[in-house]
Amino acid sequence: MSWLSVVVVAFWAMLPAYLPNNVAVLAGGGRPIDGGRTWRGGRLLGDGKTWRGTIAGTAAGAALALALDAVAPGVGDAIGVDLPGFPIAAAIALALGAMVGDIAASFIKRRLDRQRGAPVPGLDQLDFVLGALALAALAAPTWFGETFTPAVLVVVVVLTPILHVTTNAIAYVLGLKDEPY
Ligand code: CTP
Ligand code: MG
Ligand code: K
């Protein structure tokens, strides 16, 4: 595979994990997952992790995977790249894993005394990637091994923070997000 094909496959395979956090920003609000509970002097997760955002984000990511599945043969033919499909377990795991990774990061941030919205460089850009990859590896191990080759994984780890910083800056400029990170 050419390096450009590897980049395209990495981006395509991660799209169901990239969408959920952005949908959560748009759909978020309402009851926080932690119900306001505190632990060791700080909020368990904080008001930034809501049921509505999490459910909408997960549903959107999984739905995107199924939509990508439908168009993969046509798009793959047109651009000359063998695009991966998404078994249902992989579709759900990528989307849910992205949300769970982000929630786990908020748990860690609250333990580090970072208030809601405070940036933690590195964690903010990779939490959802680690969650998505870990859950996908557990839920669909064969598919995961075939899709996320070492080269694809390297591209994911390099490409994701760049995309994350860019989309968040755009969301901030558009007034959709309170902070540009
Ligand atoms: N959001 C949500 N549910 C989630 C994730 C995000 O409702 N599971 C919404 C919230 O409105 C949140 C916004 O998306 O404020 C931005 O997400 P994020 O940057 O992850 O949350 P923060 O508010 O920065 O909170 P934290 O410091 O805990 O990351
Ligand atoms: Mg934030
Ligand atoms: K986050």
Automatic annotation (TrEMBL):
It catalyses: 2,3-bis-O-(geranylgeranyl)-sn-glycerol 1-phosphate + CTP + H(+) = CDP-2,3-bis-O-(geranylgeranyl)-sn-glycerol + diphosphate. Pathway: Membrane lipid metabolism; glycerophospholipid metabolism. Keywords: Cell membrane, Lipid biosynthesis, Lipid metabolism, Magnesium, Membrane, Phospholipid biosynthesis, Phospholipid metabolism, Transferase, Transmembrane, Transmembrane helix. The chain crosses the membrane at residues 86-108, 128-145, 151-174. Its EC number is 2.7.7.67. It is found in: Cell membrane. One of its GO terms (biological process) is glycerophospholipid biosynthetic process. Pfam families: CarS-like. GO terms for cellular component: plasma membrane. It is a multi-pass membrane protein. GO terms for molecular function: CDP-2,3-bis-(O-geranylgeranyl)-sn-glycerol synthase activity. Its cofactor is Mg(2+). It comes from the Archaea. HAMAP family: CDP_archaeol_synth (MF_01117). Belongs to the CDP-archaeol synthase family. Catalyzes the formation of CDP-2,3-bis-(O-geranylgeranyl)-sn-glycerol (CDP-archaeol) from 2,3-bis-(O-geranylgeranyl)-sn-glycerol 1-phosphate (DGGGP) and CTP. This reaction is the third ether-bond-formation step in the biosynthesis of archaeal membrane lipids. PANTHER family: CDP-ARCHAEOL SYNTHASE (PTHR39650:SF1). This is CDP-archaeol synthase. It comes from Halorhabdus tiamatea SARL4B. The gene is carS.
